[in-house]
Amino acid sequence: MLERLREIVQEVNTAKDLQSALNVIVTRVRDAMNTQVCSVYLLDSEINSHVLMASEGLKQSAVGHVSLQLGEGLVGLVAANAEPVNLEDAQSHPHYHYLSETGEEQFSSFLGVPIIHHRKVLGVLVVQHREKRSFDEGEEAFLITLSAQLAGVIAAAEATGAIQGMSPSGQRKSDTSFSGVAGSTGVAIGHAVVVFPPADLDLIPARICTDVEREVEFFDRALQSVRDDMSRLASSLETRLRPEERELFAVYLRMLDDDALGHEVKERIRAGNWAQGALADVAMDHVRTFELMKDPYLRERAADIKDLCSRVLFYLQDHDVVKAEYPDDTILVGEELTAAMLAEVPKEKLLGLVSVRGSGNSHVAILARTMGIPTAMGVVDLPYRQLDGRELIVDGYNGQVYSNPSDQLRNRYREVIKEEQQLVKGLEGLIHLPCETPDHHRVNLWVNTGLMSDVVRSLDHGAEGIGLFRTEVPFLLAERFPSEQEQADIYREQLQAFAPKRVTMRTLDIGGDKALPYFPIEEENPFLGWRGIRVTLDHPEIFIAQVRAMIRASAGLDNLQIMLPMISHVQEVTGSIAIIKRAWRELREEGYEVRLPPIGVMIELPAAVYQTRALCRLVDFISVGSNDLTQYLLAVDRNNPRVASLYSSFHPAVLHALQHVVSAAHLENRPVSICGEMAGDPGAAILLMAMGFDILSMNATTLLKVKAVIRSVPLSAARELLAEVMLMDDAQQVRQHVDMALYNAGVDRLLRTSRNN
Ligand code: PEP
Ligand code: MG
Questions:
Q1: Hey, which of 15, 88, 496, 696 would disulfide with 20, CB 3.0 to 4.6 Å?
Q2: Same domain, 487 and 595
Q3: Tens of pLDDT along 208-229?
Q4: Candidate of 446, 451, 470, 505 to mutate for ligand 1, largest count of ligand atoms within 8 Å of Cβ
């Protein structure tokens, strides 16, 4: 049974479009279940009906023409209840709706199961028998299992049609929307540029080629290079290979010939796809065909084809001197966006970001917020390979992406952009006013930075210090570890621009979702693994070069403070302090006039929360990393869109932990700041102020919104609000209560923030 399931799913996977996929399903399921009829009905929301999309057994003339309105017939019943219906005599059921065009009157029994993808019923899979007998438990279970596995394939095929402006049954469709997670607030309207990491056939997008002959020439050159490599390899191994292995090399070389793979790729180039896209399509088609083969030897050849085509791709990418062209209204789209991909686009051209993977608190989303770029994350169903060059709207408030926008939708979103611009303009008057509540409580608003451009924006917004400089950002943009001198230059820029205001530099925090391309860390559980201080303590040469660079850069400015990430044990702090002191002593001996900077610890693991007092005794200040603290307290991967709705910094457990940290730090007379994203959420900022945080550190984009709210809410009211929410036991209830308080204070207009916290 399992083997049969696997075969059907694989065959459906190889289908080139939705209709072919459905045809395979009905034929193969009817055979596998030995029934007289198998049909698929899909929901077409353009006409609010379930359309008979494919059938084996019903009249073919009905396919594509017959439909049932929502809730109508047994199909409607299955879809409405999202549950199977298994009947011996369908016609006697009150929901039975006779469709004369299908000829279904000859069939008595009926088994329909819903096709569900991400909680949404896409349609219904039906099998029917002539004789009156209900389907047994095993048959029902088989159909349910199959339907669950096929749902993803059907959803993907539907999505591909939808971005081409077609509903499942071929109606014209606009405003196709794809849901993800809010990444960075704002709206962007522009054109997609699909980016992808090199050397991965699965991720190459389709892209229109403008010069076919040049593209064919590129491809020929790449093929020739691979042929040369293979011949060289074959002759260098000649004496060590068995005859059958030598024959394999000959087969590979023949596969590259003009009458084999090469020919197919060129045909696709001539049809308008660029060489990389054409190669990827041909490769994946063949790989899927081989994977379907019964013979295990032949099945394994799929890997050979992939390897061979990857080699060609390597040369294509190497020779492809034409870099991606970025239109003035670029929306960068990718399976997994990285800091380096963002940095590649000229700043003034980058309007929006869409990432298929990741979530609202992934580091790339945080970077986007720092840069003020509207972003949707975790848009898992987006057929992004087909999007290059298409017009998109990114709604970063709700994590929504639209293709084929209608004039109406476009105009509506243009209004939203205008409103946001007016709001930002209106806040500029606050830049030089103090961040003080109406009852004269002063709050320090600092910023989080990563790039030099953030520093400029931060100063423009009136920031009073840097609470978190993510030093890993320049590391992520480099092609090797930056040298001590290169680092010192970068750090000096930040320190100088902010002097005499304080700049908190965090030591290298890589691992988790921050992988350096030149220092890959492959782990089963990266967020529970080798991250932050754990990496740098294991690599003292990296650690010491970094702190030397920081301390050198602070000469004559004395506004540096160093902060340690991912601390879970006191020994990590004592070990790090020893290294920092050693670096400082060395520099003094080398003649640098430098002071030992204040050292602080990040509280971002539950273990550190309960050791706040012990940690405080070892350092000068502490800062809460609420992004990780939320992730680890709630056991919700901050990078996983599937669990994004469970990630909330308003969860009572998080709020109580934060309050504990503030009180414990103050008992030890240490200042405590918070540099996680929640500090930049106006509603959360009010609670944090009431808890007693000395400094709120956030991205520059949200700084003035937070200042506006703090200037409108007295500390006494904030304390009352905090007392109320600390008695609540549900994150959503807390969020609503805080929103309501801001509404009552008349500052709800500033609430349009990303709802990840
Ligand atoms: C945090 O975890 O809250 C934090 C500020 O660090 P990062 O987001 O870089 O992990
Ligand atoms: Mg962190």
A1: 15
A2: yes
A3: 888 899 999 989 998 888 888 8
A4: 470
